[in-house]
Design goal:
Layout lengths: L2 E14 L3 E8 L4 E6 L18 E10 L2 E11 L8 H17 L7 H16 L4 H16 L19 E3 L4 E3 L11 E2 L2 H12 L2 H4 L6 H19 L4
Helix pairs in contact: 1-2, 1-3, 2-3, 3-6, 4-6
Length: about 240
């Protein structure tokens, strides 16, 4: 019987039968996979606490049958329990996990995206970081890791670097004043929005989470990203 070891976050759980659960794990090496946790809802089963939504741990799996692996054992690392203390932070965490479920591909290495999710959950659960800052960084970095980052440091059409005050989602990002009239749908974009997105694209996550700005700026960035995600991934946030 072949055993597989993965580090994984529980991103979905459903009770199945008398004491079992069906889980979706977001793993470091296999993307999002479905697993069976036998006896996980039983009072005395050591899987109970380690297979809750958002739990992160070392999982040992075996026997993929009917599309499901089975958990042999799990060693919890963290459970992000701080999320349960604030409904707004819990809602944002659930939103980010929803995107991971949408974008993850089974059997595809996901170390960067998993690290991004774990960092985001940490800052939501264990710090007072602005929740919209966390949302901004998560979606910007996710697009970068997926290979479809918005173009922010030059015009997405001509490559010019002056007067980048519009955002054209279908063109892939910022556009200059010379190209503006050739584009159909576009929205105004403040310099601070463009600079924020460019900074997060170019610097490590650790640097990005240290940014401090007005909540109004984060909200503008979220709206810009929302349009981009809808255009390129048909995904609503």
């Amino acid at each position: 019987m072949e055993m597989i070891k993965v580090k994984a976050v529980v991103i979905a759980e459903t009770k199945f039968g008398e004491n079992d659960k069906l889980l979706t794990l977001f793993t470091d090496t296999l993307g999002a996979i479905n697993v069976s946790a036998k006896g996980a809802t039983s009072r005395h089963n050591n899987l109970k606490s380690a297979t809750r939504f958002f739990c992160y741990g070392d999982f040992v799996l075996y026997d993929k049958k009917n599309g499901y692996y089975t958990i042999s054992e799990v060693s919890p690392i963290t459970d992000f329990m701080g999320l349960s203390k604030d409904v707004d932070r819990l809602c944002v965490a659930s939103e980010l996990v929803k995107f991971i479920k949408f974008s993850s591909v089974e059997n595809e290495e996901s170390k960067q995206m998993q690290r991004l999710l774990l960092n985001s959950l940490h800052f939501l659960a264990n710090t007072d970081k602005n929740i919209n800052l966390v949302r901004c960084i998560f979606y910007i970095k996710a697009l970068f890791y997926m290979g479809i980052p918005p173009v922010m440091e030059e015009c997405a059409i001509c490559g010019g670097i002056e007067d980048l005050y519009c955002f054209a989602p279908e063109e892939g990002g910022a556009i200059c004043s010379l190209c503006r009239d050739s584009v159909g749908y576009k929205i105004p974009m403040e310099k601070a929005v463009r600079e924020f997105i460019a900074f997060v694209l170019n610097y490590p996550e650790e640097n990005s989470f240290g940014i401090v700005a007005e909540n109004a700026l984060y909200e503008q960035i979220v709206q810009t990203l929302k349009i981009f995600l809808k255009t390129h991934l048909s995904y609503d946030i």
